[in-house]
Design a protein that fits this description.
alpha/beta, five-stranded parallel β-sheet, 13 helices, binds zinc ion
Length: about 400
Amino acid sequence: MQFLTADRLWDGTGQPSLVRPLVKINEGRVDAVERSLLGPATCTGEHRDFPGCTILPGLIDTHVHLVFSALPTNQAIIEQVTRETHEELFERATRNAQAALRAGITTVRDCGGKANVIQKLRDAIRAGAILGPDILSCGMPITTALGHCNWLGLIANTPDEVRDAVGRMLDEGADFLKVMATGGNMTPTSDPMKAQYDFASLALIADAARAVGKHAAAHVLSRAALPDVVKANYRTIEHCDWRVEEYRYEFLPDLARQIIDQQQYVGLTVSGTMRRAFLPEIRNDTGGPVRRLDARFACERQMIEAGVPFTLHSDAGVRMTPIERFDLGLRAAQIELKLTPAEVLRAVTATAAIAIGLPDRGMLTPGKRADLIVVEGDPLRDLESLGKVKAVMKAGQWISP
Ligand SMILES: [Zn+2]
């Protein structure tokens, strides 16, 4: 049995923080969380005390790209991913995964790698050969010939090709399926305002995932594809952008109602270019994604107020988005989406765990996996605390810094 005490604990259930908690951990799981009445000396077993600190569930980043390098331009990232060998990509993915874990992210869902690099890393971490967070991998995202992230290599233009791509990803050990339902900002030959697939192909992917007990995620960067993605009942809608024209967003309450009724989750993106509150250079960026931020955040706020379940993710690896600075994205989300620190934290712990099908984590309650972090100060008062990670535990094991 391991014992852990600190000034406060936030368990992710929605309850307020517990003062002077005692956490008991047994065989990698939370055994009990109670008010610490006994002095540390009375605990038998391993005991660690963290004065001035808060214990939280380990963070879950539901959308990262471990093979990307967060260089300043999309072109540089694409050039690098295209040029490098699988061994080089594996090394970068390993470094990124380890940086994430040290920053308190104990689970990541990788939404697009190259070849089977990410599955290999996932398996090596699972086997204990490499230290890292738990990884869920889609393998490569399904896209069209000139479509978003076509340079990752999984092209499917026709329904038959889509079926083949699905079969290949499941054969290669994908944990979930990912489709680029619209074009993306990163890929100049693609158009974020246009759907890349019709409803039949989108439904084929989501249904194939469900048929084998997995889930599917759809990248949606404009409203062109949103109704079909909702109708096909994708578990997670990545970015979930309601843009209808260059600078215009249009929220549809009925569509939001359907998302809620079907228990779909939207993944709101707080990558580098959305962190204008902290990165002065972003404010001078005249590119479309930055100029659209006010309209985008206003629309996302409507979604949140309508009650749509949401997670927050970094899209780490895209430009200016180093994986270990998830804290900056979360602080930006608090400001831009007018959230409380508790709402932000729930989105990346309890809600994230359910969204990606890992109900064994995300909360610190008896029976859950002992994935936890200890941060200096009180993140429920100030999310800046998330940048001051003192200790990380994954499945009951301390990760040395
Ligand atoms: Zn992405």
